[in-house]
Amino acid sequence: MGVEMKLHGWISMVISMAIICLSPCFCLETNVGSCNLYEGSWLLDQSYPLYDSSTCPHIRMEFNCLKYGRVDKEYLKYRWQPSNCNLPRFDGKSFLTKYRGKKIMFIGDSVSLNQWQSFMCLLHSSVPEARIIEKGGEPITNVTFLDYDVSVIVFHTTHLVDIEVEKIGRVLKLDSLKHGELWKTMDVLVFNTWLWWYRTGPKQPWDYIQIGNKIVKDMDRMEAFDLALITWANWVNTEVDTTKTKVFLQGISPQHYHGAQWHEPAVTNCANEKTPIGGSSSSQGLPKAQYVLESAFQKVTKPAHLFNITALSALRKDGHPSSHNGFHGMDCTHWCVAGVPDTWNSILYASIMN
Fold first, then answer.
1. Helix and strand tally (H, E) in the chain?
2. Per DSSP, which regions of 22-131 are E strands?
């Protein structure tokens, strides 16, 4: 979800004083001290959403909630408000102007696709007449804004590390990351993974796991997740020139399939939820995978950013498609567009622009 500024006279001063904190959070330096953009709460703002999803040509059926029958619209009206400052409003034209000739890539599973589509809609709403070319398909889709020579790319990978087909079957290689040769040529990298690490049965995209010379049929999934993230961290340390490329690792995108998360019967899910969970992001417990991710991120020795959207998104039980998608299945994993990913992209915008 995008962000509306109310104290316009103060905003320009805030933005001009903004700095990137090379730590597990992104902060703005203001005249009242350091402000963590991930700590805050959701407020109703009737000026929202920042764009009309029906005019955006980039939304897939999985995320287009209004098109597929969602009637309530209050979920579109919530603005993320950090505790000690305001979040700069996403300005697509400013982004395209500053990043002229550059490339930004979202790398990960369908949650990355979800965020990429939000990013594309935010840009389209800013420059609706811009000439674009879209190329590719699985695993790479590249949309180039020709008037600015800016490429906004999504790279689909379920695990970041490699899955290779060998004689024994599909092998998940926890210490191999071959696609990195392409990734490191980008100017901004936004990584995400978790959704596929706990998959079993027919939906599991591998048959064996390999680490070093050892091949096993299965192992503790959280341990495998940790080892893969350490491989990613080592790759950043050895392969990425962070003086030229900004690197982000996204926190775990929370799901809302169990009402116990918000003190309702466990059989309750995100269907028919119309308001966020009350309180602030600081009151939210984190999933175990987030602690594993944060621990692995600490092994990155170069400047990089933990894109820590987990707690603020955990409040948004109302932000999922539920059955309002092209497949009409219950989806409490992904997010409506327009919706919560617009706020993720507003925080990303604040970071990469300052």
1. 8, 15
2. 27-30, 33-36, 40-44, 78-82, 103-108
Quote the number of domains for the chain.
1
Examine the residue annotation and report whether 328 is marked as an active-site residue of this protein.
no
pTM of the model: 0.90
pLDDT tens digits for 152-186? 999 999 999 999 999 999 999 999 999 999 999 99
- Of residues 27 and 188, more confidence is placed in 188
- Tell me, yes or no, if 331 is annotated catalytic: yes
Residue 348: exposure state from Cβ atoms within 10 A (0-12, 13-18, ≥19): buried
**Active-site hit among 331, 342, 346, 351:** 331
> Is 334 marked active-site?
yes
Q: What is the pLDDT of residues 301-341, one digit of tens each?
A: 999 999 999 999 999 999 999 999 998 899 999 999 999 99
Of 41, 53, 110, 313, which one is the catalytic site residue? Answer: 110
Q: Is residue 13 assigned to a domain?
A: no
Q: Report yes or no on 4 lying in a domain.
A: no
159 contact partners, CB below 8 Å, separation of at least 6: 172, 193, 196, 197, 205, 228
Residue 225, classed as helix, strand or coil, is: helix
Catalytic residue among 159, 305, 324, 334: 334
- Is position 11 within any domain? no
